[in-house]
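re: that complex we talked abt at group meeting.

here r the seqs, copy pasted straight from the sheet so there may be weird spacing, ignore it
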Amino acid sequence: MTVRRAPPLALRLLQNAGCDEPFIGDLLEEHAAGRSRLWFWRQTVLALAAALLCQTREHPILLLRALTMAVVIKSALFFVAAAVLRGSTDLFEPVIPLWMYMQLQLYLVTGMLLGFGASMVGAWIVAMLHGPVRVPATLFLFVLAAALAVADPEVHRLWANLPEQRFIPYFALRVGRHLMVAAGTLIGGPCYRRLGDARARIITVSLYVDHWHLPGAPMKSSRRLAPAG
Amino acid sequence: MSPRRFLTDFEFMILLAILRVGEDAYGVPIAAEIEGTAGRPVARAAVYTALDRLEANGLVRSRRGDPSGVRGGRAKRYFHVTTKGVRAVEDTRGALTALWTGIPQLKGGLA
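got the structure back, here u go
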């Protein structure tokens, strides 16, 4: 008999969220018995939401540290990469004249790619170091980046004192940069597992440090929907 | 904070489902029992969250079974209700019955 394959991405999300193995086994068993892929995805989303609530409630201080660290790491990586690639530490204004249109585009695209890479690496490191809160940390960072993408044109309009919103391709690229940051966060967060044993070692050290410096934070992580790391 | 004396409706249903299923009570039959008798879909994550809470409060205990291929090599987690859990079910039922009694609008009840 051929066992029906569950959606691999959903399965990976469940594993990365640290869901209980018997719980994942139950979903696989029901899917093999005839439940639809849509059903499997619905259960996955609900399980991620449950993990989000559980981890946020149990480790608020650790989550705050993770978010702070993510912003610092991302900014530092972006700063260093921009300085190396563009020969400047001025991150937000083009250092080239506007008449050099192609170069401006190149600058913006480079900024998007840098934002993507820095966010991915930042989210990856933070998820690796903050096992108990990796789901809310990744999702909060994603929501923050997406919110910036939505708010950017309006903030720019107010900043420039423009009477009404206008579509300018430049805006699209600015928004695109935030979206790339959001995408990088979403990809980088769950990718930490590729580090294998090194990840386990780092998380062990991290939890050890948390145990002494964040009273009450890490040792409640044995709840089933919380990560096993 | 003192522990709650009574169960939530979902915890109550889960404990009753475990007692009805018996020895083979793991996630799938527990959820099926609730869906079958209550007639409402149940999120599997909600079942496990409640089971974890019940286990943390000492109302159920769990053990791991053997892994199987159809479950991707993952073991089942069997649950059984502890003595404390049975007492909690009885307390909750008593409280609900007391509330039920003497309400004239509920025809066919214990009024």
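couple things i noticed - Chain A has a mean pLDDT of 67. The CA atoms of residues 8 and 40 of chain A lie 11 Å apart.
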